[in-house]
Amino acid sequence: MKIEDYHTVYHTTKLSDIEVALRKRYRAGRNSFWLFHGGNKFPAINIMVIGNLAYIHYFPEERHPGFASVGTLPGLRSGEETDFFLSSSDEPLGVMNEAVVQFSDALQVAREFATSPALPESIKWSEL
């Protein structure tokens, strides 16, 4: 699996290496990862993280709007947004709290994706 973050590219098949890569954070505890299965551009997964919160987006193929993670985290107000950062710039991307999950869920999604390019089943998804 290929994992790209703000500044680094990893190539690995080991589950332990996947976790190490996804735990990397830059300032303010944030990062964004693109996961690719093998050398293919699709399917792909984007995981944006800030601290222990994550937003996950699965793109099955080119031109498909994809699937967004579904979250119900206590402490996040329904109808409001959490700011994530798709790039290392300071331009936030507001994500509805209903799509925010725990980082541990993102790790599980990445582990599943490492073994199969299919939509991971460990979380609920909303097709866009």
Determine the structural class based on helices, strands and strand pairing: alpha+beta
What is the overall pLDDT average? 95
Distance between the termini: 25 Å
Gross morphology: globular
Fraction in helix: 10-25%
Overall description:
With 128 residues, this protein is α+β, with helices and mostly antiparallel strands. It has one domain. Helix content is 16%, strand content 34%. Strands 1, 2, 3, 4, 5, 6, 9 and 10 form an eight-stranded antiparallel sheet that branches. Helix 1 runs antiparallel to helix 2. The longest helix is centred in the C-terminal third of the chain and has 13 residues. The two termini are 25 Å apart.
Layout: helices, strands, pairs:
Layout (H helix, E strand, L loop, with lengths): L1 E3 L4 E3 L3 H8 L7 E7 L7 E7 L2 E7 L7 E3 L11 E4 L8 E4 L3 E3 H13 L9 E3 L1
Antiparallel strand pairs: 1-2, 1-3, 3-4, 4-5, 5-6, 5-9, 6-10, 7-8
Helix pairs in contact: 1-2
How would you summarize this macromolecular structure in one to three sentences?
With 128 residues, this protein is α+β, with helices and mostly antiparallel strands.
